[in-house]
Amino acid sequence: MQSHSIQQACDLICSARHLVAFTGAGISTESGIPDFRGPQGLWKRYRPIQFQDFLRDPEARREYWRRKVELYPGIRDARPNAGHLALERMYRAGRLAAVITQNIDGLHQKAGLPAERVIEIHGSEAHIVCVGCGRPMPVEETRRAFAEAAAADLLLVVGSSLQVYPAASIPGETRQAGGRVIIVNDEPTAQDGIADLVLRGRAGEILQQLADLSGRQGGIQ
Ligand code: NAD
Predict the structure, then answer these.
(1) Ligand 1 pocket: which of 31, 36, 157 to mutate (most atoms within 8 A of CB)
(2) How far is Cα of residue 88 from the mean position of the Cα atoms in its chain?
(3) Could you give the CA distance from residue 85 to residue 108 in angstroms, rounded to a whole number?
(4) Which residues, in sequence order, are bridge partners of residue 200?
């Protein structure tokens, strides 16, 4: 699919009544946190540890925590980049209603978005849940994320390969409820075919341009 223009995306953003952003690991690579499936992704270095293996195999658990110890300082110390800051500007300008994120890095909140406007559909690096007594998935966050996706008349998807379910069903939820979808990613995603607009490139740069342009264009509703 061809890449559309920033102006086309901005026109959709400026006429949206309920814009929701849906972000993935790709929005945080410019803060130095590697994604999983991109060209420099962690799966190029590590084999993914499946949840069943984590539960069954003490060696898989040791390896999981060894990786966490290695990667956690990078997440703890990361700063929001131009992309996170642009979404915060769009929120402050009254353009953006909420962010649904697959990320566990807390960078949307560090950028200044109120915690109640950020739905962490995959939980957060800041909390650990016991697999013996905790819930298997953030049930309430998942419910809220799908409700926001259905309420959105425009969903801005940023930096996600859209391969991890159930989160990857979010764009379909918006479409099914009659909303439109813009995808911002530096490589093709699994769902470009259902998007109304695709912007190919770096998230930080594109979001900054969208925040600038929509900030100059009037008509905040
Ligand atoms: P993914 O790794 O599957 O896909 C990321 C996509 O973003 C890739 O297509 C990649 O090419 C693109 N991308 C990378 N840098 C970009 C940039 N600067 N601009 C535009 N596009 C860019 O990530 P996902 O879809 O979010 O999926 C899966 C899982 O990864 C989630 O469950 C999430 O929790 C986890 N994850 C989170 C973090 C984090 O919290 N920062 C980091 C790694 C993985």
Answers:
(1) 36
(2) 14
(3) 8
(4) 185
Query: pLDDT digits over 95-152, tens only?
Result: 999 999 999 999 999 999 999 999 999 888 777 777 777 665 777 889 999 999 999 9
**Structure letter (DSSP) for residue 93:** T
The CATH code for residues 2-33+80-217 is 3.40.50.1220
Distance of CA 22 to the CA centre of its chain: 5
Out of 35, 67, 77, give the residue to mutate to test ligand 1, the one with the largest number of ligand atoms within 8 Å of its CB.
35
pLDDT digits (tens, 9 = 90+) for 21-42: 999 999 999 999 999 888 888 8
Burial state string for 111-130 with b = 16 or more CB within 10 A and e = fewer than 16: bebeeebbbbbbebbeeeee
Q: For ligand 1, is residue 122 a contact (CB within 6 Å)? A: yes
Q: What are 36's two structure tokens?
A: 């999983």
Cα 65 to Cα 45: distance, rounded to the nearest angstrom: 16
